[in-house]
Amino acid sequence: MDYNFIAVEGNIGAGKTTLSHMLAKHYGAELLLEGFADNAFLPKFYREPERYAFPLELSFLAERFQQLNTRAAGPNLFSSLTVSDYFISKSMIFARTNLGPDEYKLFRQLFDIMFESMPKPDLLIYLYAPVDKLLHNIRRRGRRYEQNIDATYLHNIQQQYLDFLRKQSGHMRIHLLDTSNIDFVENPADFESILSIVEKPASKGVHHQVV
User: Fold this and answer.
1) Is 144 exposed, middle or buried (0-12, 13-18, 19+ CB in 10 A)?
2) What residue ranges define each of the domains in the chain, with the CATH number in brackets?
3) b or e along 94-123 (b: 16 or more beta carbons within 10 Å of the residue's beta carbon)?
4) What angle do CA 188, 194, 200 make, to 5 degrees?
5) How far is CA 208 from its chain centroid?
6) 110 vs 115: CA distance, rounded Å
7) Could you read off the pLDDT of 1-46 as tens digits, one per residue?
8) Closest by alpha carbon to 78, among 115, 116, 123, 34?
């Protein structure tokens, strides 16, 4: 497998962090994880989204930039495999959904300045799951501040992700994994199916895979 940097993406509750842990363990890879649990704005955003959307998205962007910039400047420079549970472009996906026009315009300017210097993944894995499964996963993991997330919000985020993926088809290797009918945590055969997809050589473009 000729990759140095794999990013796992997906909607809220899709299993990004879980799969990233599993891939990193399987391949003995470095693991980059978002620090959402330490973000003081996240619970506030779910209570008052209009008030806290901009500081939330700005704080996530700053953290992602700092983490990737630090990793890229290190001695390994992604010379060995790194698995991340995010791609920095998710900042724009959530900003497009959560911010008003003026805030989005400013956020976009900041993002464009940062994005050019950021390392890009050799492979992007997008975990697709229907909204009802996402809601089930959110309820099951039990983070209190997430329990009021509704289907409309998840649908909007999903549409933004899919629109982003379509626009990247000529620039990145993307596996869109439909996980509607699998459980890669509880069923080892499902995880093996994902590994076989990841390890198969892929050209640039969106490769839709029903696992």
Assistant:
1) exposed
2) 5-210 (3.40.50.300)
3) bbbbbbeeeebeebeebbeebeeeebebbb
4) 135
5) 17
6) 9
7) 789 999 999 999 999 999 999 999 999 999 999 987 778 999 999 9
8) 123
